[in-house]
Amino acid sequence: MLMEADLPNDVEALRALVLEQSRTLATERAARADLALTKDEADAEIERLQSIIDAFKRHRFGRKSEQLQLGLEDIETALGQARAAREAVTAKAGGDRPRKANRGALPAHLERIEQIVDVDDRACPCCGGALHQIGEDVAERLDVVPTTFRVLVTRRPRYGCRSCESAIVQAPVPARIVEGGIPTEALIAQVLVAKYADHVPLYRQAQIYARQDIQLDRSTLADWVGRAAWYLRPLRDRILEELRRSQRLFADETTAPVLDPGRGRTKTGQLWAYARDDRPWGGDDPPLVAYVYAPDRKSERAEARLGSYSGILQVDGYSGYAALARRSQQFSLAFCWSHVRRKFYELADSSPVATDVLRRIASSHPVKAAR
């Protein structure tokens, strides 16, 4: 900002200064107009993308399919880019950054590492006096430490007796899942979680390890998975045994493509799930779920796992469960409102009866109707 003392006494010099300031002001106004236009464009793009996301969510039924999830990810990524562009424009224009929506507090159990961002000079910019702290702003961000590999070195000292030269004493080798192998149990657990929970195939995991200069063949990882599965069988059987003691169970099955060795293609297997969750009823039993692979969808597969179960089994509309219930005569079937509603939902546009059924379901099961 020009002060009175900065103004020249010469009229021509003063005239030149005024013209220069006028040109600068015009340039700034044009830049602000461009920024405003860019911000409006960003706002329009954000509104467009948000409307697409809302449409996706309105037209989905039940759980989101994997394809819908992927589509939403792409749209929400583009939405994030548009928001970042708008924030950059706002910051460049000198305006206040839009306040972020509250995403909820970060988990309390996470380690907190504090960083102090302080002023360089604690002298008052006005009078030069000493400043004192009157408060602070605190912001939390979620950080990640990339996977760090390390080598655990196990040393087992051997001891001998000078009096009895034949006596050698040494601690036994600790038990391992892979005897004589290189993986710790933690590493094997990581491979299992990546494969079965995160859906990362073993060959991709091998590529990830190779980026750290750790050479592990896919066949080696597969051997670890097989050995771990053998050790986990008693746990699987114990979970199934505990599930059979429950008053209420959920059962479902879904297709699972598996390799068909020697034929150069995949075949369709079935992954059966047996679950218990009494939390909505205030039950004391902890939630449990067991996943069991089978080559087909025959009701005998469920019969082999349920055994002498007597209680309530909630299922979808698969007829195999009804056949199983007739043979067993030990448990009662309960069905799923989401599956019942789905058929009427598909007919709602052309059938007043279906529309009326949907209305009745909505009035008696508002939570289900909202999903």
Automatic annotation (TrEMBL):
It holds the Pfam family zf-IS66. It comes from the Bacteria. InterPro entries: Transposase-related, Transposase_IS66_central, Transposase_TnpC_homeodom, Znf_dom_IS66. Residues 121-165 form the Transposase IS66 zinc-finger binding domain. Residues 48-114 form the Transposase TnpC homeodomain domain. Residues 32-59 form a coiled coil. Residues 181-363 form the Transposase IS66 central domain. Signal peptide: none annotated. Keywords: Coiled coil. This is Transposase. It comes from Novosphingobium kunmingense.
